[in-house]
Amino acid sequence: MSLGKWVGVSAGWFLAGPIGAIIGYYVGKSFFNGKNDQEKAYEISLLILASLVIKADGKVRQEELNYVKSFFTKTFGEVKSQSYFKIFNSLNKQSFTSQMRGVCLQLTQSVNHASRLQIIHFLFGVASSDREVHQSEINLIQKISGYLNINSYDFQSISSMFLNGDSNASKYYKILEVDKDASLDDIKKSYRKLVMKYHPDKLQGVSDDIIKLANEKFLSIQEAYEKVLKDRA
Question: What is the structure's pLDDT at 140?
Answer without folding.
Answer: 96
